[in-house]
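Hi everyone,

Forwarding the result from last night's run.
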Amino acid sequence: MMLRSSVIALLLAGVAGAQRPSGGGTPNPMDSIRRLPNYRPAHDTVTLLSLQRLEKLPPAQQRDWFAYIGRSTAEYAHDTAVMHRELRQAHMREMVRAPYTHDFSVKPYMTPAWFATDTARRIADAIASYQAPNGGWSKHVDFTLHPRQPGESYYGESNEWQWISTFDNDQTTEEIHFLNLASRAHADSRYERAIARGIDYVLDTQYPNGCFPQVYPLEGSYHDAVTFNDNVAVNVLTLLDSVAAGSYPAVTNHARQRAAAASARGLACILDAQVRVNGELTAWGQQHDPLTLAPTSARSYELTSLAGLESSEILDYLMSLQTPSPRVVAAVYAGANWFKRVPVNGYTYEHYVLTPKAGAGPLWGRLYEIGTNRVIMANRDGKTLYDWNQLTDRRSGYGWYSAAPAAMLARFDAWSQTHPQAP
């Protein structure tokens, strides 16, 4: 009861009442989602992890969730306090936006020889400097320009306090990956400390049910959903598997053991979240309710659905496991069979344009209506559409179709030869 009371107090006074470092930066229209119609700030009472929903859980689950949210809220308060102290010391009233770039990842040209260069070391230095107090990273930050300066945000899209830190757009996992490769070429205790803190952050974000949110500390709204979109869960589990296998020398044996246990819980989350329709396993949504694991929506145009691209990536991950359990094998067969039932033929999709073409395909939709398997989409108004030609403000900038599942199915055909389906 004392823990629950403390967490309730934090929920009411911490996130909602904390003074946020803020400013008047203009979000980049390509990436901005904060002001979409369904955006809800962190203190909104209508959230996936609201007090009203948590109180309906069994007592043991309540304890776990209240403890998790308490840690999240305390971390948020600590992070923002660090920034406020930094602003005061720099005699600044608001943060300065970090230098913007659309994405960051380890690229194919970044070979071991490249990581031995001064360029790679400068980027690694900048990455380490942009690590947030919680141990993670934000997104849209150009690490090629300069290390983080006092009063500078950790986020490249605006100077508002958001996305600090996140797994969205491959972030946090890719920074850790980069630093690990840089550390092999340039032994540096700063990189090792940043890697260890980053992995601790990843482990801290895991929900009591083994799943992962998009943003931690929690921000509310769809960010609190179990997130498969943008490969979040797969990226995290791939990292944890590498840590458990000893590919990250900077971490301790204890951290490797924690990573192995967290990966097992994350795998269980994936299997538990696979959607059943009329009793039959199918695929996964982009986001799932963190308490019920039912598919849910995110941005206004990301409707509750089965997700073609994300489900394909999940199946690729499951097929990469060295010794898949019978349950994993069953999940892969069910998912592959679903994909074989729902291709779209007779079209090409290039540069965000869907064009009829005889003999073209197969393609798969990004979102499928649950129960009918019809491809669905939406504009920013959130109304379900079945015809790509009806898209207006969301026609470009979002991939509504993909041919990627074809390669996954080819891998499945090979994988199934050594992993027969159980009777």
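Residues 205 and 322 are 25 Å apart (CA to CA).

Cheers,
N.
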